[in-house]
Amino acid sequence: MTWLGSDVPLDAWDAAVQTHRPDAVVLAAPMAEDVRGLDETVRVVTERRPGVVVAVGGAHQDATASTCRRLGHRVGPAARELAEHLS
């Protein structure tokens, strides 16, 4: 697992995906104003790494790109579900 932090610029996401070649990326949309930037991040990540699972949590997860896997609002169950999906 690699933690990039919050408010990560798109070029940093691009570099991280190239370097780490993740199977999954987990993002959060806690506020409505996060959705637009999150959708741009999803676009960059999936263009650079086709097939990557993009999972989203947070209050506004349902407003994000339809390609995102919704994690719900509870961390424990979300982590288990994502781990099972990736195994």
Describe the structure.
By secondary structure, the chain is of the alpha/beta class. The protein has one domain (10-86). The protein is 44% helix and 14% strand. It has helices at residues 10-20, 34-48, 75-86, and strands at 24-28, 53-57, 69-70. Strands 1-2-3 form a three-stranded parallel β-sheet, sandwiched between helices. The radius of gyration is 12 Å and the shape is globular.
**Main beta sheet: strand number and arrangement?**
3 strands, parallel
Low-pLDDT parts are none
Helix content: 40-55%
Question: Which strand-content bin applies to the residues?
Answer: 5-15%
Mean pLDDT: 94
Number of domains: 1
What is the N-to-C succession of helices and strands?
HEHEEH
**Class by SSE composition:** alpha/beta
Number of strands: 3
- Our measurement of the CA-to-CA distance between the termini, rounded to an integer number of angstroms, reads 15 Å
Computed Rg: 12 Å
From the spread of the alpha carbons, the general shape counts as globular
Q: Which oligomerization state do the chains in this entry correspond to?
A: single chain
Count of runs of 4 or more consecutive helical residues: 3
Order of adjacent strands in the largest pleated sheet: 1-2-3
Indicate the topology.
Elements: H1 10-20, E1 24-28, H2 34-48, E2 53-57, E3 69-70, H3 75-86
Parallel strand pairs: 1-2, 2-3
Helix pairs in contact: 1-2
